[in-house]
Amino acid sequence: MKKIKVGIVGYGNVGKGAEKVLHHTDDMELVGVFTRRAPNTLTLADPKVPVYSVDDAPSLTDRIDVMLLCGGSATDLQEQAPHFASMFNLVCSYDNHLKIPEYLASVDAAAKDTSAIISAGWDPGLFSMVKLLSESILPNGKTYTFWGPGLSQGHSDALRRIVGVKNAVQYTLPIDKAIEAVRSGALPDFTTREKHLRECFVVLEPGADPVEVERQIKSMPNYFADYDTAVHFIDENELMQNHAHMPHGGTVLHSGKTTDHEHVIEFALKLESNPEFTASIMVACARACHRLFENGTFGAKTVFDIPLAYLSPKSHAALVKELL
Q1: Cβ-Cβ contacts under 8 Å for 176 (sequence gap 6 or more)
Q2: What is the pTM of this model?
Q3: C-alpha torsion 221→225→227→233, nearest 10
Q4: H or E element: which one contains 82?
Q5: Whole-angstrom Cα distance, residue 273 to residue 13?
Q6: b/e for 36-62, b at 16 or more Cβ within 10 A?
Q7: Residue 170 CA to chain centroid, in angstroms?
Q8: Model pLDDT, residue 241
Q9: Longest alpha-carbon distance in the chain
């Protein structure tokens, strides 16, 4: 069986997770990691995998079937995705929900002769699929999404982009009484602030003004401005000791009626490693992306556009026999 040749752009948490996942994926082969740093400064888990500068990517289009873009949504992916989509099939996990329509359009405009799957994480991505199914089955109802408790990579990345922040993590905490209200079938209405809390642990650069940094955090649109947000300033040692792991999770609930009967659909995740789980979804979507390209389906797509069977390494006959 010919393996799908995969490249990784960015060697942060998701990039490292993707390397681990690909190592255990029989139908794929990691052929290179691309970085903006000096390539000789990266130490990969597998030293046999070559490291390239991102500037070398255009000369390697014939060696890579699908590129996984593992940068952050705050700034990296908005610039990188259209650039790489003009040369490579790609998968990303862009997660700024409000800007997805314009992001999709920008990648689609660049992917004239390539296939791209965007926002392929667990939310957006896997949760989006569950919401679509739930609302299709129970159209007379409401869908609720709760994130956490856990460490959000996208929000942590947004914190680290603030001038004066040396390192930081952010935890998303669902408000339990809101979840229980949905489970009761009551169809409650919530403001954004009534569903989640945000808690930030921040290490400052020397000389940084904590008052100004906290102001920037709490006023950041799309990330913190609409939430009750607690900011704690700590030192690097405490961050490494108490906040080095990356657990996360979340729940999608859809409450609806058929005639006079109430139903609740619930889908939940409990993740020990947010980046490795996100990478696992991206790798499955890389398989689907390669199949879209092989079938001549070009342009940018979302998880809504992928046949479920394209995600699996199993044959259609095996899927029917084992899972149907």
Answers
A1: none
A2: 0.88
A3: 110
A4: helix 76-85
A5: 10
A6: eeebeeeebeeeebebbebeebeebee
A7: 15
A8: 95
A9: 65
